[in-house]
Write a structure and sequence with these properties.
315 residues; alpha/beta; Severin; 10 helices; ADF-H domain-containing protein; ADF/Cofilin; ADF-H/Gelsolin-like_dom_sf; actin-binding; ADF-H
């Protein structure tokens, strides 16, 4: 991945925070630089910034994570010679020499400043631009009317799910990307596992990039094909499927399968957020049997997944 160096530096900084080597404010500054770097990389992907300018900015960002580079040591001034015995004063210099001695030495040319790109904000829609010229109330009404992407692809996504327990307290912080996990998101998993209420579920990071929430669910009669069909073409998702199978001795069993979906067409920022939040989200889900990482549906065919499940020892 193009930004693996930036992510590794951020991971190292988080480890330093956990060990008490740096302060929370230092880590927040590095994380802010990391997210800004991902925005700049997205601008490179769509052609707003040239690749060489991105590389300069990326090196500057990595420098902020790893510390300033060591400047070459300034040459040590030669020791001042001991004053010699007084001698006769030399004859006065010629007028041209006096002018040359009076002139101050030329200042060295200043070093060029590092490249510092800022991504311009997207141009507001025509309706929003017009609303800004009116009273604040009119502007707020226009903003409220602006269309937004739905938080879930299934209109029957449950809410206010009864608490079903879990292996980790919901108060235990956020992921490395600053993303938390909603209580309903965790309760849905245990509702599936303990009550078999749903066959599968999908989760997503919400629009504010602040929490993992429920994206879609599949009823008991849903199939693996239905599960794959609910995955978006250009965005990431977490998924869990309750996979049923029959053992060679005829026993009917099931395993909870976790899928980390990150298609190639998804934005770099989304891939980074989901990758750095996956383990934190999974730490709330007790009882997963297998994990699959996929960027294409062919990588998680029902036959391939079924073979992997049946290869597990009976739990």
């Amino acid at each position: 991945m193009a930004d693996s160096a930036s992510l590794q530096s951020l991971l190292s900084t988080k480890a330093a925070l956990d060990l008490g080597l740096i302060s929370q404010a230092d880590f927040d500054a590095v994380k802010s630089s990391f997210l800004r770097a991902q925005q700049i990389k997205s601008a490179v992907d769509v052609g707003l910034i040239k690749q060489e300018d991105y590389e300069n900015t990326k090196q500057s960002f990595l420098g902020s994570l790893l510390g300033p580079a060591t400047e070459p040591a300034a040459p040590v001034a030669a020791a001042a010679p001991q004053p010699a015995a007084p001698r006769a004063a030399p004859p006065p210099p010629a007028p041209q020499q006096q002018a040359a001695q009076a002139a101050p030495p030329a200042a060295p040319a200043p070093r060029p400043a590092p490249v510092a790109w800022q991504i311009p904000p997207p141009a507001p829609p025509a309706a929003a631009a017009a609303a800004q010229q009116h009273a604040p109330a009119a502007a707020a009404a226009a903003a409220a009317a602006a269309p937004v992407r739905q938080a879930a692809s299934n209109p029957d996504v449950p809410s206010n799910i009864p608490k079903m327990g879990g292996a980790k307290s919901m108060s235990e912080g956020t992921s490395m990307s600053g993303i938390s996990v909603s209580e309903d998101a965790v309760n849905l998993f245990y509702l599936m596992r303990l009550k078999a209420t749903y066959k599968w579920a999908l989760w997503q990071v919400d629009e504010s990039d602040s929490a993992v929430i429920i994206a879609a669910v599949g009823e008991k009669g849903s199939t693996w094909t239905d599960f794959l069909a609910a995955l978006p073409d250009a965005d990431c998702r977490y998924g869990v499927y309750d996979f049923d199978f029959v053992t060679p001795d005829g026993q009917k069993l099931h395993k909870m399968i976790f899928l980390n979906w990150a298609p190639d067409s998804a934005k770099v920022k989304a891939k980074m957020m989901y990758a750095s939040t996956k383990d934190f989200f999974k730490s709330h889900l007790d009882g997963l049997s297998l994990e699959f990482q996929a960027s294409d549906l062919d990588e998680v065919s029902e036959q391939e997944v079924g073979d992997a499940v049946r290869a597990l020892k009976r739990g």
